[in-house]
Amino acid sequence: MSEFRQTSAWWGRWNAHMSISQIQTDRAALFRALHTAGRPLVLPNIWDVAGARIVEDAGASAIATTSAGVSWGLGAADGDELDRDLALHLIARVVAAVDVPVTADIESGYADHSEGVAETVQGVLAAGAVGVNLEDAHHRGPTPLRPAPEQAERIVAARQAAGSAALFINARIDTYLLSAGDPTARLRETLSRAEVYLAAGADGIFVPGVTDPQIISALVEGVAAPVNVLAGPGAPAVAELAALGVARVSLGSSIAEAAYAVVRSSAQEVLATGTYGTLTRALGYGELNELLR
């Protein structure tokens, strides 16, 4: 009987593993299919499990983390400062809490070299996510952006690390966000990098910092893959971005920034006047508790 119980337990664990793998495969296929020009995937980025449950409950088709929000919530500055293991642990907790695909913003891969990027991607897949953002900003480098060939090597490493998994690699190009290079050549540089990154194995191109409809339209025309833009106050509405052919709209760190603004304003109000007006739009305790039950 003991041998039978051991065999049954092994079979149960193997079957559970296969079920989880199939779930992840199905979510990866769904996530990829959600990138449709003209019907963009809209991602209100989150940084913790409660936020993920709230966004899923609001009707989101997928969940995306914001590296800035994750870093701030875990006590680090954004810009390749967060410990990789902390980031991966958070991703795993978010994946476990929702029933929709999860894509993770992993900054530059939480690594100095392409080998480290591969290790990070393996960790992301082990956590159950089906997509990553991989940026070409070089926060501690001599220039704002990594040279395109160097970034391409990192994308190749990410793709190889994913193996047969249908990981959606969203290559982020920070030419506009960081105002890098000659302004008159910025669009040409962005399109050139996009071509290099797609050849290296990227599935989509993310260009934050662009709100001009003409530039967005040029990006959609010039990039042979789904185009992702960063939206928020001052950017075109989702319907306008859809009409321009955008396939993915992200809110980035803006929700986290707004949430922390509530922390500051409510603290300032109660400490200065003893009143609580800032908190009148708070979610109810019971509602939040039920979402996490």
UniProtKB/TrEMBL annotation:
It comes from Planotetraspora thailandica. Pfam families: PEP_mutase (PF13714). It comes from the Bacteria. One of its GO terms (molecular function) is lyase activity. This is 2-methylisocitrate lyase. SUPFAM superfamilies: Phosphoenolpyruvate/pyruvate domain. Gene3D superfamilies: Phosphoenolpyruvate-binding domains. Keywords: Lyase. The gene is prpB.
